Amino acid sequence: xxxxxxxxxxxxxxxxxxxxxxxxxxxxxxxxxxxxxxxxxxxxxxxxxxxxxxxxxxxxxxxxxxxxxxxxxxxxxxxxxxxxxxxxxxxxxxxxxxxxxxxxxxxxxxxxxxxxxxxxxxxxxxxxxxxxxxxxxxxxxxxxxxxxxxxxxxxxxxxxxxxxxxxxxxxxxxxxxxxxxxxxxxxxxxxxxxxxxxxxxxxxxxxxxxxxxxxxxxxxxxxxxxxxxxxxxxxxxxxxxxxxxxxxxxxxxxxxxxxxxxxxxxxxxxxxxxxxxxxxxxxxxxxxxxxxxxxxxxxxxxxxxxxxx
Amino acid sequence: xxxxxxxxxxxxxxxxxxxxxxxxxxxxxxxxxxxxxxxxxxxxxxxxxxxxxxxxxxxxxxxxxxxxxxxxxxxxxxxxxxxxxxxxxxxxxxxxxxxxxxxxxxxxxxxxxxxxxxxxxxxxxxxxxxxxxxxxxxxxxxxxxxxxxxxxxxxxxxxxxxxxxxxxxxxxxxxxxxxxxxxxxxxxxxxxxxxxxxxxxxxxxxxxxxxxxxxxxxxxxxxxxxxxxxxxxxxxxxxxxxxxxxxxxxxxxxxxxxxxxxxxxxxxxxxxxxxxxxxxxxxxxxxxxxxxxxxxxxxxxxxxxxxxxxxxxxxxxxxxxxxxxxxxxxxxxxxxxxxxxxxxxxxxxxxxxxxxxxxxxxxxxxxxxxxxxxxxxxxxxxxxxxxxxxxxxxxxxxxxxxxxxxxxxxxxxxxxxxxxxxxxxxxxxxxxxxxxxxxxxxxxxxxxxxxxxxxxxxxxxxxxxxxxxxxxxxxxxxxxxxx
Lengths: 309, 483
What we know:
Number of helices of chain A: 10
Helix content of chain B: 40-55%
Largest interface: A-B, 30 and 30 residues
Strand content of chain A: under 5%
Distance between the termini of chain B: 31 Å
Shape of chain A: globular
Oligomer: heterodimer
Structural class of chain A: mainly alpha
Radius of gyration of chain B: 22 Å
Number of domains of chain B: 2
Shape of chain B: globular
CATH topology of the largest domain in chain B: Cytochrome-c3 Hydrogenase, chain B
CATH architecture of the largest domain in chain B: Orthogonal Bundle
CATH superfamily of the largest domain in chain B: Cytochrome-c3 Hydrogenase, chain B
Strand content of chain B: 15-25%
Radius of gyration of chain A: 19 Å
């Protein structure tokens, strides 16, 4: 069979089903550090299946937006995922300028998530939406700067070319990659509501960011939204993985390495969550701004590399 | 001021309590700097008799006074308008007897009329209200919290409770029992049962043995250790510090399992009875308890050290939810929360008995914030463990004594009061008997009754996302308040 067909198939499967296992592994890691046995790593998958079997309960104060939003969130995340290079650094849709489409498709999804939260009229969800919007305004420019710098550096303006940076830029590339990975990792923690930005396990509505926005969702809607947020995590992990792993080492090795890095990243997140407390809401902004500083460093380094000093 | 001086855990004749003119009493209460520990009305034929108990903490005295109010009187000039410590007491009195305190700063229901009530409101472009509860996301008790916020900042929090009002005080008069006393507040089983038993023993004129008293105090301190450790874990759980949450959670289980070995209940239900205790602590068990507590102490010390070294934890705890000493004094905050704000009240030492008098009262350097509330728990755990060990040693001296003395009948016209320092703070039980030797009034004041307002003050000017952290630090009782 054609190598590309196999990779397309494989990457779609990773995008769709890896989210459950990544979250499962994070939970297992946290349980390990806490000295507990923990739930099976298949539990997030079972939970989603269970939610698909359930009915939706819809508040009478909501409009069509609330009905429509979960589908939009899921569809946009899935679509955005198709642009991202996954195993073997293969993007299913590989076009020039893909990162712009990618960012704004994710943005569309987030926009619907925000207005759907506002649509319920709940004071909690409005608060969560305002926090989420606030973080996004910090994260988005930084994300853009990083991706634009990396892609400009790689030369041919496609997403999958970012894996060549270490190869093409040598030692200078390593420095850039380290900065970019730190920045993207902070973005991963922020966008996927992990400690120290958000606490995914809390029941305290007043402290939540992402979780509070979906308090009113149930059944299929909730399943789609949690699935989508898991996919987003895999997408961001894939970006990091592609930066640090030099690919082109053959199909089997490439795929294996990719999965291994995803699992490793999940373990790192789980360990981090066990070791530190959550930041105070006002300090979270400082933490997220660190991402912007690293993004600017990446941009300057890329400029130096491309145009000389 | 005309009053009768009594001690903690003492019965006095109801007729010895001076009855003064209500106007005079009102003026004196408004002016005094002694803090009220109990303020309640009682049906008195054509009149309502208002009892007031003030505490003179330095001398360890309790000052009792009373006034008769005609049932036709429908209003009086509020005491709270001059002395804020009476704020809640007057609201409660108004709710129970429908005599309106005029010019009361904020007269609204305490426990009843849950449907229509006012809240402080504010207006502006960025202001918003957040209403939380009475049904919450976690498995906790019902209570309504109304935040007035500007953006993330809380300007005011108003707390509405009473959703669990069961009429406990009336039930106590009709059918008093240890089981009922234990069920009032599930996390202070020992403290409640101890206060109830002491009041009843005084009213009956029973003198219980030192052995029973020691076992009660051991259980009381165990309860303090267990709940404090659980709270330390819960505080850390709220700020997502997983390690601390799990370790403290496991350690708490060791302590409550020890209570299980003593009494057959992890919360000490059925341990205390009127006249003494139901279960003994023999030498073998005593050694086992010491062993367990040594292990607990070791773990708690290590974990606390590690926790307070963590910069992320400290950044959450420090300077969160400040309550200044002045505010705390004005509100009459009591117990552990009071101590964390620099008010050195501890009824174990203020109204000292023969068991606590040998212990040194250690001072606590209060910083008034969430860190202070964390640290005081740690300090009290270590302190209580050393108390328990000393009590266990003393227990060996009175091995031959009975566990429970024989029951007697209630003495007519009695007025008995018992203050127990539960883990939250001073728990006040007062009971009176009528001329025929029946209970005529039973009044309970949980420390939460004083301290809920402290929580409101703590979250002012803090981020709304810090509320859960403040709330866990206070960890107040809903059902102890609702009664």
